[in-house]
Amino acid sequence: DCALSVDACAGLPVGRRIQERYRLVVPEELQADALERQLGDAEGPPLATRRCMLYAVLMVAAADPDSAFGPHLEAMRGCMAPTPFTWAGDGGIEALDEAWAEVPEQIADEWRDYWDALHVEYTTLFPALCEAFPEQFPAERCTEAAWLRAHSLYTSRAFPLLPEALGPDGVLLPLLDRMNHDSAGANVEWLGVGLGAGRGARTAAPIAAGAELLSAM
Question: Do 50 and 2 contact (CB within 8 A), yes or no?
């Protein structure tokens, strides 16, 4: 299976280390836990989203050319990640505010709220993981800018695991995640992870030689 999913990341060394120290949940549970911790009512290990394992794999997992995901990770680390959260070099809100100076205030406020959620999870994970497992999580590769870049890579490239049963987390797919998106002109259809009939990707329209492959995702 070449799909880089949250479940696949859970079986990698980076994912296993995270599971040793955190209880992994969906985003809605994380928001409720953050409120409980502010009120002093939370018990047990800190919470993080299941997707954080995928972000961490993008940041620090070994890109071994002989491993299932190594070539994909190597390629992803050389890709652009053009979302508003990568517009500033250090990932800090002050620098991002400067980068967003020309953005309408209502939109910038939404981005700030989203940055706050990403920042809270980042500070829950780091530097704690770097201190506990420095070999898997070298501090120089676990910066907030790297975290935001991993988030941006994911959000700009992920496909749903199964289009007919949308969950909170998607998957990254070699080659397919390089396609540009065009909801109106898409000529490639994604049918979900699996080897059976009706899964994988297929052309959705005749494609002329040399024409660009486009996804609706």
Answer: no
3-state secondary structure the chain: CCCECHHHHHCCHHHHHHHHHCEEECHHHHHHHHHHHHHCCCCCCCEEECCHHHHHHHHHCCCCCCCCCHHHHHHHCCCCCCCHHHCCCCCCHHHHHHHCCCCCHHHHHHHHHHHHHHHHHHHHHCCHHHHHCCCCCCHHHCCHHHHHHHHHHHHHHCEECCCCCCCCCEEECCCHHHCEECCCCCCEEECCCCCCCCCCEEECCCCCCCCCCEECC
Read off the pLDDT of residues 141-192 as tens digits, 9 standing for 90 and up: 999 999 999 999 999 889 888 888 888 899 998 888 888 877 778 888 888 8
pTM, 2 dp: 0.87
d(CA 14, CA 4): 13
User: What contacts 136, CB < 8 A, 6 or more positions away?
Assistant: 13, 14, 17, 60, 129
Can you name the residues that pair with 172 across neighbouring β-strands? 4
Give yes or no for a contact between 193 and 5, defined as CB atoms under 8 angstroms apart. yes
